[in-house]
Each structure stands twice: as C-alpha cells, then as structure tokens.
Amino acid sequence: MICRERKDDWVMFDQHKHGLLAGEFAEAFHSERYRSSKRFEEALYAVKDHDRGWIYLDDNPFWNDTKDTPYTFMDFPVAVKLTFYSKGLDEIQLNSPYAALICSLHFERLLVQANFEHPILTKYMEQEQKRRKQIQLELDLIDLTDNSELNYDLHVLKFCDDLSLYLCLNEPGVDKEHEFPWWRDGFTVSENFDCTEGEIIQAYWKNSTTVELSPFPFDSAFSVELTCRIVPKMDIVKMGITEAYYNTEETHYSFRIQSR
Fold first, then answer.
1. Cα separation of 253 and 224, whole Å?
2. Tell me: the pLDDT tens digits for 68-84?
3. Region 53-64: what's the mean pLDDT?
4. DSSP structure class, residue 171
5. Are the C-beta atoms of residues 29 and 213 closer than 8 Å to each other?
6. Structural domain spans, the chain
7. Pfam families this protein is in (predicted)?
8. What's the confidence (pLDDT) of residue 146?
9. Whether residue 215 has a cis bond before it, omega within 30° of 0
C-alpha cells in the first residue's frame, strides 16, 4: 500500500494500480531505443506488472501498531514483503522470463538502497541470483551487468515507477520545497535516455491537476487517472483499518502530464 498522511485522513493507493499507471507511462515513453527493442512488449509487461506481488497484501490493509500508521511499501515487515515479491516474480516469469529478470534486478536495487540486514533478505538474494542465472542461460544472455538493452529497460522501469510514485506521494499542486524529498533534484537514471540528451528529468506541479516535466520524455501531453481511497482517521479508530478502508468509496484523480 502507498499511503500519504493528511491532518484528518490517510490517502491510500493500491500498489498494483500504481504499477499499472507506471505501465501507462512506459507505453507513452518517447524513446526509439526502447520501442525498437526486440523485447519491447516484454519490457513493457515488466513495468505494468512489477508490483503484482502486492495484490495479495493490499487486499487487506495492515496497521502498524508501533508507528500508529498504516503499513506501507516502505515499512512493511520484510519477511512477508519478500515472500510476496517472490510470488509476484514467479507469476511474471510464467509469462515472460525476461520481464521477471528486469523486475528481479529492480527489486534488488531497491533493497540494496534500503541498506538493512535480515536473515531472510540473504536467503531472498540468493534465490533471486539463482532465478536470474537460470533466465540468463535460458535466454542466452552473456553478461547481465554489461547488457545495454537490459539496463536501458531497467532504467525505464525505474523512471516510470518513480513518476507514478511522484503522483501518489505528493499532495497535488505542492511547491517544490514541500515535495516528497526523493525527486526534488529530478529522476535519477533519466539522463541515460536517448530522449533527454543527458539531462535529468525534473518535475513541477503547475497546479493541482497538472504536472510539467523538463525535458519531456513522452510523445505529447496526455492525461492519466489515479485511484485511491481517502480514509478518515476517525473511521480507523472506530472500526479498524480494513473495515474503514473498504467502507470508503474510491476517489479518482485526473492529472495532465505535459512539457514545461
């Protein structure tokens, strides 16, 4: 679950729906190198389905008693999270080993950046190394670290994932100073795209419904829809997180993505 706290409520986003939004960004991505790849459809599938392991967890939101907040993708108990990362990767691999390879590498980078230690993390990393080795042999990929096509597809996943999170974790229309801190200096890896000419993509809220990007990595301006539930804190106190969540109607945001 992706959660943004406000004074009287929690804005809560289903993780897999966030992933599907990332897939919309990947479909619109203006990169000849990305679109001309022989594995384009599989790379696109990786972006769309990278968070499918969260489907099972987000069916029943969990409450973090220690922090007195909903559990989010950032602080969810690691043993459970890694179990469902693996489950999601297993399902992706059935449809596309290449997509599973991209997602496995994406998760590994996220976990390394989190910089924590846990016995189950070591086991997970070992299992994923075996998965990637198996796929590498199956697809006859000589060197994963020096595979420019694979790394490019991985960068696209990271950017599209980050842009989708940017819409979820920021209050619409917020000024740059008060944005969620991860992207105040732009989207890392975006300088590697053929459509940015070495520049890092920066995002700015023009108003509460429009996000401007510079340089602009898409074919043209377009609109996307984001679904969430705005759950009152008092309802959570009265009936618990799960019942409060499902007793809250969905809210639909529409955002315009355009050039600055």
1. 8
2. 999 999 999 888 999 99
3. 92
4. P
5. no
6. 2-259
7. DUF3891
8. 67
9. yes
